[in-house]
Amino acid sequence: MGRILFLIGIGLGGAAILISLGVWQVQRLTWKQGILADITARISAAPVALPDEADPVDDKYLPVTVTGTFDQGVIYVLVSQKQIGAGYRVIAPLVTDAGRRVLIDRGFVRDEDRGAVTQPDGSVTVTGNLHWPQEIDGFTPEPDLDRNIWFARDLPAMAQVLNTEPLFVVARETSLPDATVIPLPVDTDGIPNNHLQYAITWFSLALIWVGMTVVFALRGTRRRPERPDL
Known about the structure:
Radius of gyration: 28 Å
Number of strands: 7
Shape: elongated
CATH class of the largest domain: Mainly Beta
Strand content: 15-25%
Largest sheet: 5 strands, mixed, barrel
Order of helices and strands: HEEEEEEHEH
């Protein structure tokens, strides 16, 4: 009897821990969904003029509209798109009508179309979102400057190369008729939200734990057959 009570105690204790972890992940899911909803609302808000001094925290994802002309210079950042394949983000300097120089992430160009990218002439209006991408880590290769291929958006380094403010405007739409470069707007797709899968995993483990406990407890209640006297 003591062994059975011990198994029941272990089973209930383990199940309680696993269920509490699942509940915690459900709570995290609600929290993350709220954050994503807030980010989505900020991204899709009405665009405003470029702030004089943009703040990386307060102005992240801020929708803006800028008008100016593209200057010489371009940077290609290696990326890939689902159902399209390899290509590049096209980063170029824009001189605004107010005389500021900012970086414009114009969007995606296929690998085979890179040679067709040209510098737009005349005044251009870009509507997009301010962004401070965090894509650099210890494993990011150095840019291949000979071939003008970068492997991540390194805002300070790119601003230095193209002689601009360290400020990114990721284009959502532009006044350019050129269809070679396809805008890649800021969205929440790159923000992980796996809490539902984690919750299901913990609840499933709790169910398995209870099932195993029941099996072992039932085995413990079975009486062993008596050995016949010889």
